[in-house]
Specification:
Radius of gyration: 15 Å
Strand content: under 5%
Shape: flat
Helix content: over 70%
Order of helices and strands: HHHHHH
Length: about 110
């Protein structure tokens, strides 16, 4: 059940990023990218389109307890998604820990 929920969350995140950045498809087509180059470009483009937790909190003008609550939930969601990505990449031990730490930091944004 956890895997199903996590998969749904990741798909929703990807769909959201894709919906927010239709220009990624256009840019990839314009550059005539295919195969691994296109996949790499699309991942980077969609990741850049996603806002960090801090940016979303600022956009929503959150402060005080609402800000703290939002940031904790956002960090937890990011940690779950990053851990799943590390599992998909078959990372173990220190490599996994390092990847998850950087991934969460990138998702949350500068504190």
């Amino acid at each position: 059940m956890k895997t199903l929920t996590l998969t749904a969350f990741l798909l929703a995140s990807i769909a959201s990023a894709h919906a927010q950045s239709p220009s990624c498809e256009a840019q990839a087509a314009e550059k005539k990218l295919a195969g691994a180059a296109r996949t790499s470009f699309m991942k980077k483009c969609q990741a850049d389109a996603d806002k960090t937790c801090k940016a979303r909190a600022t956009e929503k003008k959150l402060a005080g307890a609402a800000l703290n609550s939002f940031m904790k939930k956002c960090e937890k969601d990011a940690s779950t998604a990053c851990t799943a990505t590390a599992g998909d990449k078959k990372l173990k031990g220190a490599a996994k820990n390092s990847f998850v730490k950087k991934c969460v930091t990138d998702a949350v944004g500068a504190q």
